[in-house]
Structures are given as C-alpha cells and as structure tokens.
Specification:
- By secondary structure, the protein is α+β, with helices and mostly antiparallel strands.
- It has a single domain, classed as Glutaredoxin.
- About 40% of the residues lie in helices and about 10% in strands.
- The protein has seven helices and five strands, in the order ββαβαααααββα.
- A five-stranded mixed beta sheet has the order 1-3-2-4-5.
- α2 runs antiparallel to α3 and α3 crosses α4.
Length: about 220
C-alpha cells in the first residue's frame, strides 16, 4: 500500500524490539527510566548478562518514565523510539543511559546522530511528540501490572523478585535453564524398540528306521538212532 504524502509510517513499538537470539529459552523484560541511576546500573548488568548467556537470553526494554521526578525521561524515551525506526534503538538506548544527566532535546539529537540515525526530521518529530503515544503505551501497560517504581524485571513473564546484580540474576537464569532442560528430557519420548519375533523353524521328524528282524528257523536236530 503506497504511503500518502504527509502520512507517517507505522511506528515500531518497543514491545517488538528485542536483542538476542529469537530462539533463546529465557526472555527478559525490563521496565525503566533513562534518567534513573538505578536503571542505568541495571542496564550495565543486563549487558553483562547478554554477553554471558549469548544464545540463551533475549532482552526487551519497556519505557516507564518517572516524570514526577525526571522531567526529561519521557522525551528521552521518545528519542529511543525514533531511533528504533531506523534500527538504531540499542545504540541509542545505551547512549541515553550513559548521558542520563544531559538529556535536553538538542542533546538527544546529538546522541541520535552518534547512534547512526539519519532522519533529518528527527528533532522536529521529537518536538511534535510523534512518538509520545508509543512511550505512553508502555507506561500504561506497566501501570496495569502494578509497577510504581523502576527498574522492574520479568523473566519468562514472571516478576523477578531477586536483587539486581549479576550473581543474583545468574542464579535465576541458571535455574530456568535447568528447569527447561529437565522438561525437555521428560517430554522427549523414548524410542520404541520393536522386537521382531524369530521365525519358528519347523524341523521335519526324522524317519524311524524299522529293522525287520526275520527269525530264521533253525532246522530241528535229528535224533540219532
């Protein structure tokens, strides 16, 4: 379908933006805020986990800007969505955490350029809040889950309640991998070995040799006179 003049293309939502192997057995989702120090530290742990569990872990970041205390977090989240439209979400994502104390609109444009974004209208779209509803959708979904503060993590759709550090996450991920491995072993049916019955060899009865014993009559002895 042709795009009409002035019509914006369909926006890729953050729920569809993952990093890591699609077939990874463990899926991690983080709700976070780009101005949050705690979220920035958590992001460092996530990057370590992605390296450690390459091929086994897939990660998705969802926006939950705490706008009451972080006034620039929402616009920063919009900038990451804008970068995502050119496949540059993750470079932008990490840059925003790295420069979390400097997230003014002009700075966001600089980070987008550094991340590889080429859209000449990037700044205009930020000012016009083109990606605002995408961030809002994440925020509302997080609120529906009861999230009030961030960072918050989910592992395979289950709320992670452990500490946010490398060792604690590793224990949880290893437990999930071990559990899935055991389930896979149980689910694998054992091959049925069919035993082919041995053919019954019928042996013909041996012929019974009949020995005819012919009694030869001895001639009677003649009595002598």
């Amino acid at each position: 379908m042709a795009q009409s003049k002035g019509q914006l293309p369909e926006i890729i939502p953050t729920k569809d933006i993952w990093v890591g192997d699609k077939t990874a057995p463990v899926k991690m989702v983080m709700y976070g805020d780009y101005e949050s120090d705690a979220c920035s530290k958590a992001n460092i742990v996530v990057n370590q986990l992605m390296e450690k569990y390459e091929g086994k872990l897939q990660f998705n970041f969802r926006h939950f800007p705490l706008t009451r205390i972080h006034q620039r977090s929402h616009k920063a989240a919009e900038a990451s969505v804008g970068a995502a439209q050119e496949g540059k979400f993750w470079p932008m994502h990490n840059l925003l955490f790295e420069h979390r104390r400097r997230l003014g609109t002009i700075s966001l444009k600089e980070y987008a350029k550094e991340a590889g974004v080429t859209d000449k209208n990037f700044l205009t779209k930020l000012v016009d809040s083109v990606y605002g509803w995408s961030v809002r959708a994440d925020l509302l979904e997080g609120a529906d889950k009861g999230i009030k503060d961030v960072p918050v993590f989910y592992l395979n759709d289950e709320l992670y309640k452990g500490q946010i550090n490398l060792n604690a996450f590793c224990k949880s991920i290893d437990a999930l991998l071990s559990k899935q491995k055991k389930s896979a072993v149980k689910a694998t049916p054992k091959p049925v070995v069919k035993t082919v019955p041995k053919p019954v060899v019928k042996t013909a009865p041996k012929p019974v040799a009949k020995t005819a014993v012919k009694a030869t009559a001895k001639p009677a002895a003649k009595k002598r006179a």
